[in-house]
Write a structure and sequence with these properties.
alpha+beta; two-stranded antiparallel ribbon; 2 helices; about 30% helix
Amino acid sequence: MCSSGGSYQATFSHRCINAAHEIGHLFGAGHEDSAAPYPSYAKAYHWTEWFIYDRYTALWSSFMGNDMCLEYSCDTRHGDASLHDNARRISETKGVVAGYQ
């Protein structure tokens, strides 16, 4: 968001992550702490890389700048099947979204 009279100064990479974040919501993916109407498994994920760097998937609720990755949580990479699988939710709802007229 920008203040009145301001402008949006995000980098191209940050704008891509923001767009992916919002598109994920359209497909039913939630933040890391999302409750109903999101399924319990459709949450964002946070991990540590090289025991140093915090990383976040695109659906994380707070924008984390360069530590955010242009990816959704999934059961095989940066997530798990029980709580952190935005990709599964997106896959489940793509037919509904495609059917909008």
